Amino acid sequence: MEKATELRTDVLPVDISTVQVKHGHHDSKPFLGDWTIELQEGSVDARNIRRAATELQHSDIPVAFPTETVYGLGADATRSAAVQGIYKAKQRPSDNPLIVHIHSLQQLRALLQPSVCGADQQNINQNISDSDARIEAWDQDSNHDPIPPIYRSLISRFWPGPLTLIMPNPEHSFLAPEVTAGLPTFGVRMPRNLHALALLKLANVPLAAPSANASSKPSPTEAGHVKHDLNGRISTIIDGGPCEVGVESTVVDGLSDPPAVLRPGGVSIEEIRSCPGWSNVTIGYKDMSETLEERPRAPGMKYRHYSPRAPVILYEHGKSMPPAQEMESYLRGNKRLGVIRTATWPEACGLPTVTQLNGHTVAEEKTLLINGDASIMSSPAESTDANAAQVAKAWKLHVKLGPHAENVELWDINLEASPELIARGLFAALRELDKLDVDAIIVEGVDDSRGDVSAAVMNRLRKAAEVKI
Ligand code: TXA
Ligand code: MG
Asked: pTM of the entire structure?
C-alpha cells in the first residue's frame, strides 16, 4: 500500500459544557425536531470544534470524533474523495458499506429523496429545506414521510442513540457510491454524543464514519486509542473523553420481512422486540455457528478483527477457568499472560502466586496500573458509578503455573460488574494488555442469551478470538 505523507495529528479537547443546545419548544423528543447550538465564541473549545467542522466540509482527510459507541473516523458522505480518505487513513480496501451519521430527521429525509441536478452540497441543503416545507413535525401526519413507517417506533424510542437503520438509497443519491459499497440501501444513525451532534450540526453534511481504529484492531473508545492507531495519517482528533457505550451501534434492517438485526450493539434485541411492529425481529448475524465451526484452532491462523496483537483465547460463558497447564501452553517469549475476567473466575484464576509461596500476601504483590485510580468514565454525562473505575485497572501478579513456568507475570483485568461496564471497558482492556506485550489474552466470556448488551460483547469477542473454548 502507498505510503502516505506523514501528517501532524492533533488531539483537540472540547469541553462540551461550553456548547449550548437549544431545542424548539414543540419537540416531544430532544434532537428529533429543530435544534441549534451556540458556541462560546473565542474559547479554545469553539475554535477546536470549528476547525474539525471546516476540515470535514473542505478537506479530503477524515476527522476522528467521539460518539457514544466508539470513536468514528468521519468524512462528508456526499463527496467521493472525502470518503476515499477514510479508507486511505485506515489502510483498508473499500469493501464494506459505511454508516451515515445525521443530526436531524430533516437531514435524513433529504437523503431519502433523489438529488435532482447532481449531488452537490447546495443541492442537498436545498432538499433539506424543501423536505422541511413538505413534511411538518415528526409527530404529525406521516403519509408523505419518506422515512419508512416501520422505523417510526424505533426512531422515537432510540434516536438519538446507538441504533443504525437500513434505508432505501434513492436512484441519483446524494451519497457517494463508496458509502454504500454498491448496495441499494444505506445504514444511518443519529448519535447521542453531544460532541458528535455538535460537529454534525456545524459541518452540516452527513458524515460517513466507521470506527477510527487501524484495520483489524479493537475499536477505539478513547482519543488516545485513535492517536495510537492513526498518528501521522489524519490531522484532527476531537477528544471528548471515553465512550459511554463502548461497543458499536446495533444495525437493524426493517426493509426485509421479517425484520432482522444485522449486528448486535448498544441497543439490545429485547429492547427492539418490545417496540410496536418489531415483535418478530430475527437475528440476522452469524455468531454461535462461527464459534462451533472454528474451534479450537491454533493461534495465528485467522483473519483478524477487533484483535490486539496478542492472540485472544476466549472461554465461552460457563467454561471454568483454564488449569495452570493449559495457561502454560499459551506462553511464548515473554512469560506474560493477560486475563480478562467478567463473571465468576477468581482473581489470578485461583493460581498460587510466587509471593504467596514466599510468605507475602497477594495484596502486596498487586501493582495498580492503567491510569492509577483515574476513572475511565470521567467525562460522559451519564453515571459516576463507583464500579466504573475498575474497568481501568489491571493488576500484576507473579504466579507459579508449574515446574516449567515458575515466575509468570499475570496481568489481571476484572471487568466484572454489569453487562454495561463490561461493554464499556472491553476494547480498552484488550488494548491495555497489548501495551504490556503479553503472550496471550485469556478472556472469560459472558452469557449472551439474556437479551442485553452482552450479545454485542460476545459477538466482538468471538471475532477477536483465535481460539474459542
Ligand atoms: O457505532 C457505530 O455504528 C460506529 C460509530 C462510529 O458510529 N460506526 C460503525 O460504522 O461501526 P461502520 O461503518 O464500521 O459500520 C459498518 C457496518 C457494516 O459492516 C455493516 O454491518 C453495516 O454497518 N451496514 C452499513 N450499511 C449497510 C447496508 N446498506 N446494509 C447492511 N449493513 C450495512
Ligand atoms: Mg469497525
From this structure: 0.90
Please state, in angstroms and rounded to a whole number, the distance separating the CA atoms of residues 244 and 96: 25
Give the number of the ligand closest to the Cα of residue 247. 1
Residue 98 Cβ inside 6 Å of ligand 1? The answer reads yes
Instruction: Tell me what pLDDT residue 118 has.
Output: 52
Does the CB atom of residue 306 touch ligand 1 within 6 A?
A: no
C-alpha cell at 432: 491495555
The 3-state secondary structure of 275-299 reads CCCCCCCEECCCCHHHHHHHCCCCC
Nearest to 447 by CA among 268, 301, 305, 299: 268
Cβ-Cβ contacts under 8 Å for 103 (sequence gap 6 or more)? 31, 190, 197, 200, 201, 204
Question: Per residue in 183-205, pLDDT tens?
Answer: 999 999 999 999 999 999 999 99
Distance 421 CA to ligand 2 centre (A): 20
- Secondary structure (3-state) at 115: coil
Q: 121: exposed, middle or buried (C-beta count within 10 Å: 0-12, 13-18, 19+)?
A: middle
Residue 45 vs residues 20, 51, 107, 224, 380: alpha-carbon distances, Å: 12, 10, 25, 18, 16
Ligand in closest contact with the CA of 221: 1
Which ligand neighbours the alpha carbon of 97 most closely? 1
For residue 280, CA distances in Å to 10, 166, 428 come to 47, 17, 35
- The phi, psi pair for 38, rounded to 5°, reads -130, 130
Q: List alpha helices for 167-323, DSSP H.
A: 177-180, 194-203, 223-230, 269-273, 288-294
Per-residue model confidence as pLDDT tens digits over 328-371? 999 988 899 999 999 899 988 888 877 776 666 665 566 655 43
For residues 307 and 464, the answer to whether their CB atoms sit within 8 Å is yes
Determine whether the shortest distance from the Cβ of 183 to ligand 1 is under 6 A. Answer: yes
Best mutation site among 73, 103, 159, 164 for ligand 1, i.e. most ligand atoms within 8 A of its Cβ? 164
Cα(434)–Cα(189) distance, integer angstroms? 31
Indicate whether residue 173 lines ligand 1 (CB < 6 A).
no
Query: Which helix (H) or strand (E) covers residue 253, if one does?
Result: strand 250-253
